[in-house]
Amino acid sequence: MGGLLTRAAQWTNDSSGCCKLEATQLNEFLLKEVLHFTEQLMVQHPEEATHVFEEPLVWSTTLEASDFKAGYDVSDLLVESHDKDSEGRPLLRLKPPTISVRSFSQLSKLLHLAENNTLAEVRECLQGNKDLVAIIFGRSFVSFMEKEDVNQDVQSLMVKIKEREPSEDVEAKIKVFLLLQKKDKEILNKLLQHVTEQSERVWIVFSDYEFSNGCNAPLWRQLLGEICYVVLTPCDTDTLYITCSNDGVFLNKGIKQDGQESGYERISEVYRDLVTLLKHRSPYFAANIKTQVQKSLCCKTPVTFVTFSNLINLNVKQQENKEEEKTVHHHVRNKACGTTKYEPCPRWRKLGLSSTRGYVIILLPHKSSVGAMPSELFSESSSESEEEEQPERRQENNTDLPSEYWQIQKLVIYLKGGNQTATVLTLCAMMDFNLMQETCQLAIRDAGGLEVLINLLDTDEVKCKIGSLKILRKICNNMQIRRIIVDMGGLQSVVKILDSPVKDLKALAAETIANVAKFRRARRTVRQHGGIKKLVKLLACVPNLATLSVNQEQDVEVARCGALALWSCSNSTKNKEAIRRAGGIPLLGRLLKSPHENMLIPVVGTLQECASEESYRIAIQTEGMIKDLVINLSSDNDELQMHCASAIFKCAEDKQTRDLVRKYKGLQPLVTLLGKANNKELLAAATGAIWKCSISKENVAKFQEFKALEIIVGLLTDQPEEVLVNVVGALGEFAQISANKAIIRKCGGIRPLVGLLTGTNQALLVNVTKAVGACATDKDNMAIIDQLDGVRLVWSLLKNSSADVQSSAAWALCPCIKNAKDAGEMVRSLVGGLELIVNLLKSTNIEVQASICAVVATIAKDKENLAVLTDHGVIPLLAKLTNTSDNRLRRYLADAIGHCCMWGTNRSSFGDATAVAPLVRYLKAKDSWVNQSTAMALYQLSKDPYNCITMYEKGAVKPLIQLMGSDDETLQEAAAGCVRNIRLLAQANRQARLFN
Amino acid sequence: MSAMNRKVIQTLAENISKQVEHFSKTETERLIREFHVLLKEPMSNHPGKEAPGVDRGKFRNILHEDFGMTDRMIMDQVFRTFDKDNDGFLSVKEWIKGLSVFLRGTLDERIKYCFGVYDLNGDGYISREEMFHMLKSSLIRQPTEEDPDEGIKDLVEIALKKMDHDHDGRLSFQDFEKAVKEENLLLEAFGTCLPDSISTEVFERSVFQSSECH
Quick one: B165 and B135 in the same domain? Predict the structure, then answer.
């Protein structure tokens, strides 16, 4: 019972410092149980009940001498029982108001005498004797018994005890003790049951306003059994407005404002509890709660009291944890809209109910409305993409923690209570622990050390700040710690330190920022507090002097840390812009000339990260950084090489940059990097750079001097997709030169290339189809592709969901069809292929439309296939596209129309579909390709007299005559032919009129 | 100040600046003047009497007011470290040599200086007892603790664990030097006895840049 009383009872300290048992429900319950036990003992175990206590229980009673009658010696002020112990002391002695009792039988009698006041008496007794068990049995006996197995029989226990303390009535003593323990357990079990029953009603204890019955619901709703309202926003469903009532929980219509009675309406079935409701409503919650419950089954400690957080845990049958409670209490009050916002406890976070991911629990007090919705409060709800919120790992059993954990906890205590000297000493001691280890990091967190460390940053003590940062920079490699530091506002303090005149401090602060700014919110915090500007300022130093003074050396170190921090920050687009605006680019350019790798890596890392922005790409080129990047391609540090190659990869989209790379002899080192095939990141960057550089034909020629193509073809197999995308991209560019097509074939590149057509990576498929198309322009290559069933594979990619893949596949089909043997037969053999093509003309993507037109033109060269296309309704679809103003589409569309005229009544069909008039307009386009294909198409169309009339009416003759003066013979011919047809018609017309 | 005195001071300054590393001749001259200003102030315990040098009380005032030191014991130790000949007064040479390390000392010099300050009995070791003595007031006592000194004792053990490389239960100069070189923060491990950068700057500015006062 002793254990129970200290653990379960709700003790409160009153002003005088002694402990009181408050009149709570729980305590009442306990008192009753204790009373019951005493009475039962008397009845069921009369012998044991007479066992004499080691010490008397003493308290001040309300009983008076006059209350005692038979069996007591009653004098004026003194009452003594007739029953005495072996030494003749009375078992009960009252000297009002103090009473001392030495056995359960006396205690029971006394309580009997107290009649109506029994409970008060028990309360007084318990308050007066907090260490009840020790008083009754003696301290040594209790500690002995606690060590012994309770399940032993009384005899063996007796033997053991007698060895220790020979005493006559040991047996009774043991029996009483065991009875007491048994009762202890019983009460505990009852208590638990009691608490669980209660939990259905005691839903939420905290809120802005609470009626005396503990409800938050407005009175008229309470009549219907409603207790309170909860708003939850899970990550995978809409906001849930939940009513908690006596019957269970259910969704309401959304209680937003007072007086809107309809909001209270029930719109779901009634669930047993919140967890069940959420399990039904949020699949994510359901999936996660399952694993939680499994884990928690091993928890032993029973729940002992109920709070809001606890209630939730209770439902999940989990053990209470003080820290979680704190988290729930840590709520933000939003006075303006009158809601109390509760941050979910960590366990809820694990279930996806975290504020940072758009979760928030709001209690709606009855008297106010919800002004701001959760989404507004957490605008960055979906932003934490790169660092997923991991479930918090918690040590379930404290005894498993290593000794470091406790040592660190002790150090944190000294940090809290130490002056500067003690603090610095303690910080130094803390640095000796392996701070990269999670146990140590969590130890600091659990002991509240993060708060102290962050507070130190705001002091004036340089040494404390240095010490604190030295620890923070290490422990923030832990994601949780990073988040806590940001949540506590620690990052702002670190940013402030960047202004310090002490160089060590600046460097440490920058390094800490580099490690903390690994997630978006942190990076935003740095920017919003002016951190980017300050970090850029740190970059100003002279990095490439041959000899540096101590002072300059420190400057270089500060700059290096600044670059590290900027590197981390540059992951966010807005930060890239901020760095640029703060004048960071020229400073980075200067640091790029540093001879030190540890400086170059963060600098190039930042540059390549930022090169995703065009402004940076231009600056890198114009500030002359390409040269330095090329130089460092030949460094012997893989990481540095990788970043340099990656920067070139991103910048070489620009032709001038490509030329500069060649000019500074960067192509050969890029090819050399292909030798490091084991470092996949490096390989991906190098192949990427080669791909982009090979867009310039001069570069391809240069690459061939170093046999780049042979090596690249070798990289087509057994590489990760990041590498393959670039390798195939490069192949596509190399294959633009006809000599290279043969090399690809000879090196056995066709087969793996066709093999890649079955992949799913869309970026890769775009490049593969492009490369296949480029290779297919060579007849010998085409034979192999055909043999490998490549055309069918490319064709089937037209069904891919990505428009890029569709168009790229369509472009690749053109050379395939053109160069295949028996192309017409092959196309026909593809079941449903032609229908698919015709249907793709309905795509809204101009590139897809253009590429399909090109395919149609190619296919239409085969009369039979053209007939099938016509049957599938290609003519009206093509005619529909003629209104476009996109010259690229116009060119291929006119081409397709020209070729489609060759079948049946297609010419007049185009005329009927009003395709002719728009085509005439194409003649005025300032694109010779468009003019040419349009002239050809018009020539074909002019074989239908009605089309000639339309052309003539739309003024086609004049531009056609101009085109006849072109240098291009086919164009001359087509234009002339068209004019001739128009002219012939006019002439025939006149003759007809003359002769009639 | 008379021209005669000026001459004397200049020669003295030239003399001393040769022996002191971190002060130029003019700076030395200024420090000598400052020294004489201090001398003219009445002595803290023998008012009215011309002193042979700066006494402990005056020196402690400077440490407290100009450099923000508060720990009496440490301040006395700093005085003792300055007062090489142990006569209870700082001569002008002791004053300047001491300040040279105090304000501008290299790390090695400062390690030596701090060790001297912390070695309370001057036996060449910082013993457990000495550490305890110096750290005595560094923790807020928890009234609930059974042994209020336990935290301090623990700190002493932490310091020993960190710095006592030869495990003899006390810190030799070598121990101290090695520890500080590894972690500079340990330089003032047992109490602040050096000025911070700001008060150094203020002090130097007031002494070296003040306009000529005669």
Answer: yes
Enter the pTM of the model: 0.63
Q: Do A428 and B155 touch (CB under 8 A)?
A: no
What distance in Å separates residue A549's CA from the closest CA in chain B?
A: 15
Cα Dmax for chain B: 68
- For residues A785 and B73, give the distance between their C-alpha atoms in angstroms, rounded to a whole number: 91
Q: A637 vs A251, A540, A545, A600, A632, CA distance in Å?
A: 60, 25, 22, 10, 9
The answer to whether B135 contacts chain A (CB < 8 Å) is: yes
List the CATH number of the domain containing B37: 1.10.238.10
Q: List chain A residues with pLDDT less than 70.
A: 1-26, 146-155, 157, 161-169, 191-216, 219-220, 232-236, 255-262, 284-285, 287-400, 543-546, 996
pLDDT tier, B186 (very low <50, low <70, confident <90, very high otherwise)? very high
**Distance between CA atoms of A526 and A733, rounded to whole angstroms?**
42
Contacts with B161 from chain A: Cβ below 8 Å: 429
| Residue A73 φ then ψ, to 5° | -85, 110
For residues B117 and B92, membership in a common domain is answered with no
CB of A730 closer than 8 Å to CB of A774: no
> Cβ neighbours of residue B150 under 8 Å, at least 6 residues apart?
none
B67 touches chain A (CB under 8 A): no
Q: Is residue B89 located within the same domain as residue B114?
A: no
Binary contact (A501, B158; C-beta < 8 A):
no
Tell which B residues from 182 to 211 touch A, by Cβ distance under 8 Å: 183, 185-186, 188-192, 196-197
Buried b (16+ CB within 10 A) or exposed e, A33-71: bbbebbbebbeebeebbbbbbeebbebebebeeebbeee
Domain count, chain B: 2
3-state secondary structure of A795: helix
Q: Which two tokens stand for residue A724?
A: 């393959």
- Interstrand relation of A19-21 and A11-13 (parallel, antiparallel or unpaired): antiparallel
The crossing angle, in degrees rounded to 10, of helices B107-118 and B173-182 is: 130
- In this structure, the answer to whether residues B39 and B118 fall within a common structural domain is no
Nearest CA in chain B to A502: B197
Find all residues with CB under 8 Å of A758, minimum gap 6, and list them: A793
Q: Looking at the partner chain, which of B142, B155, B161 has a beta carbon nearest the beta carbon of A422? A: B155
For residue A412 the two structure tokens come to 């944190």
Put residue A778 in one of left, alpha, beta given phi > 0 → left and psi -120 to 50 → alpha: beta
Shortest Cα–Cα distance, A461 to chain B (Å): 9
Subunit contact A414:B155, Cβ cutoff 8 A: yes
User: Coil, strand or helix: which one is A117?
Assistant: helix
Specify the pLDDT at position B47.
53
Instruction: Look at residue B214 and tell me if it is in a domain.
Output: no
ipTM here: 0.91
Tens-place pLDDT, residues A408-426: 988 998 898 888 899 999 9
pLDDT tens digits for A219-242? 667 777 777 777 766 666 777 777
Residue in chain A lying closest to B190 (CA): A421
In this structure, the answer to whether residues B171 and B115 fall within a common structural domain is yes
Whether residue A217 contacts residue A198, with contact meaning beta carbons closer than 8 Å, is answered with no
Q: pLDDT at position A198, please?
A: 43
- Residues 481-520 of chain A with CB under 8 A from chain B are 501-502
Query: What is the tens place of the pLDDT at every residue in A699-727?
Result: 998 898 888 888 999 899 888 989 999 99
Chain B touched by A448 (CB under 8 Å): no
Range(s) of the domain holding residue B173: 108-188
**Of residues B137, B159, B196, nearest to A425 (C-beta):** B159
Nearest to A872 by CA among A899, A900, A892: A900
Question: Do B51 and B92 fall within a single domain?
Answer: yes
